[in-house]
């Protein structure tokens, strides 16, 4: 973990750069908005810690009613459980015996559930749970259109659920039904159609499972781009939203954009001004994920982040825009929040122009 | 820093994934090849630590004759100096007083040089050197075609060099002339033309500086894609090569590819096999930089890394290729080595199918 780039009380311009900035007013507004929306819709929220990677953020979400956290990785589950999060769903398959042993060990200090999409996976989880003397809830992941992991809805799902339910150290935890592809479909019509189809498949599976005597404690899915749609279906009972706490440039390109404020920024510094049309900042592709597009420049008319190399970002200035000075700070909106957060050790929380807090990104790099 | 994914002696299949693997035979062959090539050409090597971010690798390079290291960031300079590297060039502009104070402080334990491309930058460096009571060599960065930082070769370069030489706590360190754009030009003709032009501009500046009484202790540039060209010009006296130690898929697309072996891999695990044509591994875009293209699958005929999401990699299997099994290991060649290394805390060094060593990636995330 690298040294923090700021101290509480410091004005923003004194923060060492690149730094990951959290606008606390916007962040808290986002937490509140999701909590109210879910309450109004009568569904639970189990936010995804793959976005924030921080027990601090997890506890703030749970203080507003979230029932626990989702993670994608065993290492993330460990860091949350060690940080006092009592209820964790690994919304992902875990198949390696060594990882399953770690997860089963965690079940002594937190409720830990995970997903499976293969009989061999279920058997491996059962073996690990037996070795550790714990009981693990296992959800069946179904493919509702994301075309990644998960079983195609149908008889195989019933068979796998039965296998889980009849495993001595497992309980059937429900269905994992995340439509990842729908999150960044640009129009509401596309997203509505995708989630309608996902909900129809999921709902039918819930019914089919009921007919063989298996209830679904969790029917989980949804993301920041579609949560209102899943919440309204009556099929999903848990929303696994992640990005809503921060937002990013790519979610901003949805129509309409999700009802959240941009709270996450990368603060950069102008380090070279080679000519009147160009300024170079100290945040390149090691500081900002570019997989979903380049970052946006925040509230600087006519200035565009035009290219990233490893440690440099090239800004272009439209004719007539006010020039950037050497050592000036520039705020950037990350193209994609989750992997950008994963580049930093610290959130620098700011309010009213000053640093209010530093929170460690404890699960940064926790990929194992 | 996250727990190491392996222990010395372990067979490769027991390494926890995703893990960053270093094939030690290939890596050492790369170190040796560069050392001989530079010796034969009569130029110094000052490898770039922005690639490897490790004092361990730096010392192995210096044991083979490298004169020191390049870095892009003050934090990288700190970690190398604290790790015993005695001669460090920040091949980049540093303009913020707080960063310059850190760099000047380092000059008590290592030789530390840096670059400037603006009079205000030179004045800020002079102020920091004066405050710390040290003397810092400063190179002028010139733009030889990369169109990023640096002055256009010409009278401004002479003026800035004079300003450095006449600053009481600075010495003129020479020219920084890196043609970054040429590194990944695909044909030898393109690269040859780019470096010929860069060398012509640089050589003329060296001459012009000599006429005003300023010698260039360092004339630095070159990268893994073009180092043989710069080495042959007689203009450059230091090669700032980085990627040659590891190589990556993007350098592999050059014609001809640089004369080095692929030594860097990401080891991943199959976590889902949804159908006969698809397998999903546990290494996605948090585990692998995708800015220069997707990773390649190593030595698995017919298997392609077709898509990355945050924590998942989707492999497609051509008809007739042998199926991938759940929990099977798959080696991936990163698309771009530098930012991929920056995702990991540990190199897992392997030889003859076993883990031989673990080296910390000490400057991982050292962006400040």
UniProtKB/TrEMBL annotation, chains A, B:
Domain of life from the UniProt record: Bacteria
Pfam families registered for this protein in UniProt: Ala_racemase_N, D-ser_dehydrat
InterPro entries named among the record's database cross-references: Ala_racemase_N, D-amino_acid_metab_enzyme, D-ser_dehydrat-like_dom, D-ser_dehydrat-like_sf, PLP-binding_barrel
Sorted UniProt keywords: Lyase
Domain D-serine dehydratase-like: 263-351
Annotated SMART domains: D-ser_dehydrat
Family to which the UniProt record says this protein belongs: Belongs to the DSD1 family.
Official protein name in the record: D-serine deaminase-like pyridoxal phosphate-dependent protein
Organism: Labrys monachus
Native organism taxonomy: Bacteria, Pseudomonadati, Pseudomonadota, Alphaproteobacteria, Hyphomicrobiales
């Amino acid at each position: 973990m690298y040294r923090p780039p700021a101290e509480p009380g410091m004005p923003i311009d004194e923060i060492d750069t690149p730094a990951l900035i959290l606008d606390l007013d916007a962040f808290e507004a986002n937490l509140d908005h999701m909590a109210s929306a879910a309450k109004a819709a009568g569904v639970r929220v189990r936010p995804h810690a793959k976005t924030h990677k921080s027990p601090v953020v997890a506890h703030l979400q749970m203080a507003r009613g979230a029932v626990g956290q989702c993670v994608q990785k065993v290492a993330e589950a460990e860091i949350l459980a060690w940080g006092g999060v009592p209820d964790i769903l690994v919304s992902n398959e875990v198949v390696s015996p060594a990882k399953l042993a770690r997860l089963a060990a965690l079940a002594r200090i937190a409720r830990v559930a995970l997903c499976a999409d293969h009989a061999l996976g279920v058997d491996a989880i059962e073996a690990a749970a037996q070795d550790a003397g714990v009981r693990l809830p296992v959800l069946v992941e179904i493919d509702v259109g994301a075309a990644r992991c998960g079983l195609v809805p149908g008889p195989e799902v019933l068979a796998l659920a039965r296998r889980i339910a009849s495993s001595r150290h497992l309980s059937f935890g429900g269905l994992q039904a995340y439509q990842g592809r729908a999150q960044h479909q640009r129009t509401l019509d596309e997203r509505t159609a995708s989630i309608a189809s996902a909900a129809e498949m999921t709902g039918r599976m819930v019914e089919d499972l009921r007919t063989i005597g298996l209830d679904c404690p969790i029917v989980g899915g949804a993301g920041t781009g579609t949560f209102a749609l899943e919440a309204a279906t009556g099929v999903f009972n848990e929303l696994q939203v992640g990005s809503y706490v921060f937002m990013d440039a790519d979610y901003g390109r949805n129509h309409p954009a999700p009802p959240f404020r941009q709270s996450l920024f990368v603060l950069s510094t102008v380090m070279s001004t080679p000519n009147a049309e160009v300024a170079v900042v100290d945040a390149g592709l090691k500081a900002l994920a570019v997989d979903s597009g380049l970052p946006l420049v925040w509230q600087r008319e006519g200035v565009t982040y035009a290219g990233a190399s490893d440690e440099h970002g090239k800004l272009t200035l439209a004719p007539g825009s006010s020039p950037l000075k050497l050592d000036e700070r520039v705020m950037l909106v990350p193209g994609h929040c989750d992997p950008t957060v994963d580049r930093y050790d610290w959130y620098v929380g700011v309010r009213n122009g000053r640093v209010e807090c530093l929170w460690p990104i404890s699960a940064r790099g926790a990929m194992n």
